[in-house]
Recover the amino acids of this structure.
């Protein structure tokens, strides 16, 4: 096995921590390199470690901070932030994570989610700054502007529908444009598509 | 500070420029001199409690009127005001905006038609939103006043469906700010200024519906 992805887990519940660690290592693709029981424990070491993925429970954050986790939790540049959820959270909280794993997920879907988080993250890093659209996002945007559905886009680019949705969220966050017709205007103004593509 | 019937119209408008769009919906034209709220209301046969509540909600977005004060408003007057506002938006404000968008679109070359089409798409949503209120909600409320509780509808359905028409307006602002290069002698800033004002006014209009219409209808439904 070449380079295994390094994972850091911040989780106070010992059984959950042991379970996630065992599950991830079973895959052979990931190595749980760092485990922390508290946010404080993580913060003390944060500047010295360089995990590819940080798994953390939204529970660790006060309710009032939960909608801006990234401002209360230092994520090293290039690390993907993954939520480990045991209960229901509102969408606003979950949106901040590159991926969300649920305690009821099986190994396979955990793997898929982690891989897509890593991929998303490396694409964001490639684009230099997080406000410009990555090449992948531009491709997805063109498909959206042409009026394809999420399912069609997923098939066309050989990715999951969830990944399409994540890309679309990022596109809307970066451009400030949410509606499909608005994205079409954006694509036309930026010469990504031609008038004939949408007629 | 809340407005009262003894206040002068001129002082109210000087205190809150948002009332610039409210007064004409009650038929009040500029040049009203030293007239007070009660003067103009009796002169033009305007419902005084409605006029004061509308001006107060427009000026203080955090203001929550008491149901006792609201119950002095006649439903008929409120609905007439809301219909008036709708026609003001469609016939004046939006028509005005469209004329300005048209000029910006003219400077955008072949993409101009798309910009205009996008704006028309937004207008369509606004029209749909208004016409749902005028064809479903207002007639229901009028029937409720005349005949008592109705089984086929309740204001809870309206509250749930109070659709989000802000998304496309936000998109339009973003497009104009970030992605349309400003041409010489462009009307782009004018359009944006109008859009900001329009949005603010539309938000206050929603507040009138949420803080005055809905509580009054809920009271009627209880009976």
């Amino acid at each position: 096995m070449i380079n295994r992805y390094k994972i850091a887990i911040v989780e106070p519940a010992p059984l959950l921590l042991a379970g996630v660690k065992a599950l991830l290592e079973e895959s052979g693709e990931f190595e749980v390199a760092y485990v922390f029981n508290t946010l404080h424990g993580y913060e003390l070491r944060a500047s010295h470690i360089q995990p590819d993925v940080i798994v953390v429970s939204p529970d660790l954050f006060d309710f009032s901070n939960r909608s801006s986790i990234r401002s209360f939790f230092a994520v090293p540049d290039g690390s993907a932030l993954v939520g480990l959820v045991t209960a229901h959270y509102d969408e606003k909280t979950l949106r901040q994570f590159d991926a969300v794993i649920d305690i009821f997920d099986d190994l396979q879907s955990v793997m898929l989610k982690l891989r897509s988080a890593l991929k998303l993250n490396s694409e964001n890093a490639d684009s230099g700054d997080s406000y410009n659209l990555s090449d992948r996002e531009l491709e997805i945007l063109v498909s959206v502007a042409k009026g394809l559905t999420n399912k069609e886009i997923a098939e066309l680019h050989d990715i999951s529908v969830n990944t399409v949705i994540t890309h679309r969220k990022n596109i809307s966050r970066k451009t400030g444009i949410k509606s499909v017709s608005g994205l079409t205007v954006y694509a036309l103004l930026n010469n990504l598509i031609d008038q004939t593509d949408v007629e | 500070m809340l407005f009262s019937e003894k206040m002068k119209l001129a002082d109210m408008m000087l205190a809150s420029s948002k009332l610039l769009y409210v007064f004409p919906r009650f038929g009040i034209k500029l040049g009203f001199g030293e007239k007070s709220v009660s003067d103009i209301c009796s002169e033009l046969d305007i419902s005084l409690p409605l006029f004061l509540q509308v001006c107060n909600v427009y000026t203080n977005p955090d203001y929550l009127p008491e149901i006792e004060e609201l119950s002095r408003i006649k439903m008929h007057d409120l609905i007439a005001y809301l219909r008036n506002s709708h026609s003001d938006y469609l016939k004046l404000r939006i028509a005005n905006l469209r004329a300005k968008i048209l000029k910006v679109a003219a400077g955008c070359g072949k993409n101009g038609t798309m910009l205009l089409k996008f704006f028309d798409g937004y207008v369509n949503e606004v029209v749909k939103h208004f016409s749902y209120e005028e064809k479903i909600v207002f007639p229901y409320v009028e029937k409720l006043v005349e005949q008592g509780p109705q089984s086929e509808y309740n204001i809870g359905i309206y509250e749930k469906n109070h659709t989000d028409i802000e998304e496309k307006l936000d998109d339009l602002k973003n497009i104009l700010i970030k992605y349309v290069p400003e041409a010489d002698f462009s009307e782009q800033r004018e359009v944006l200024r109008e859009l900001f004002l329009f949005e603010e006014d539309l938000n206050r209009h929603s507040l009138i519906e949420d803080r005055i219409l809905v509580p009054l209808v809920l009271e009627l439904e209880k009976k």
About this structure: Residues 182 and 188 of chain B are 7 Å apart (CA to CA). Residues 9-63 of chain B form one domain. Chain B touches chain A through 18 residues (CB under 8 Å).
